[in-house]
Design a protein that fits this description.
Elements (H helix, E strand, L loop, with lengths): L22 E3 L16 E4 L3 E8 L8 E7 L13 E6 L2 H4 L11 E4 L7 E13 L12 E3 L6 E2 L7 E7 L10 E10 L7
Parallel strand pairs: 3-5
Antiparallel strand pairs: 1-7, 2-3, 3-7, 4-5, 4-6, 6-7, 7-11, 8-9, 8-10, 10-11
Length: 195
């Protein structure tokens, strides 16, 4: 078995003290302290990685593909405090449809750690040594699509939810989280013919 411990990402852009595996409770999760980072903050790391700090709208498990949107925290008292923040949730075909929570052209990322609902953490937007949940039988280096299983990709062609900018390096012989390469993945609309 090969040693993959050197694949863990760490910050390389000079921003000190950032732990890409740490999560932070929000005010709505009962925290009385303010997070040291703002939703939307970005950092660069090794392995050609970029991470963004975002709040989980629902529980996110390690290696899930997530979609981003701006949500307000309605539990906070003042209107200014409820200003929309960058938040994310596991993506599925249903959430990728036009008019849905994320819809076409949604920015995507891959959680490399689990983040509880209403907590914030770092989500990978790019990187050459990431892992992403995939359904059994998902082929390496094939076009990827959102699946009906939230946070997991598939190479089975779907009518919507095509994901550009994400490539699996290994096949998923069982439902697993193979290594992947991400380059700011996003959902794109299917090509349509013009007459």
């Amino acid at each position: 078995m090969s040693d993959t411990s050197n694949r863990a990402d760490y910050v390389t852009d000079g921003k000190l003290g950032i732990d890409l595996t740490a999560t932070y409770p929000s005010m709505s999760a009962g925290s009385t302290s303010v997070s040291p980072y703002k939703q939307g903050d970005r950092v660069s790391g090794n392995n050609n990685s970029t991470y963004v700090f975002a709040r989980a709208q629902s529980d996110i498990t390690q290696f899930q593909l997530v979609g981003f949107s701006a949500y307000a925290d309605s539990t906070l008292s003042s209107d200014a405090a409820r200003a929309p923040v960058l938040a994310c949730a596991p993506i599925s075909i249903t959430l990728a449809l036009a008019g849905a929570a994320f819809g076409p052209d949604a920015m995507l990322g891959i959680a490399q750690v689990s983040i509880a609902s209403s907590f914030s953490g770092w989500i990978a937007l790019s990187g050459s040594a990431l892992r992403c949940n995939a359904l059994a039988g998902t082929n390496p280096r094939a076009a990827l699509f959102c699946s009906t299983t939230g946070g997991s990709v598939t190479s089975t062609t779907a009518s919507s939810g095509y994901i550009a900018g994400l490539t699996l390096n290994n096949s998923a012989t069982s439902a697993s989280a193979p290594w992947c390469y991400a380059n700011y993945p996003k959902i794109v609309l299917a090509q349509t013919s013009s007459t």
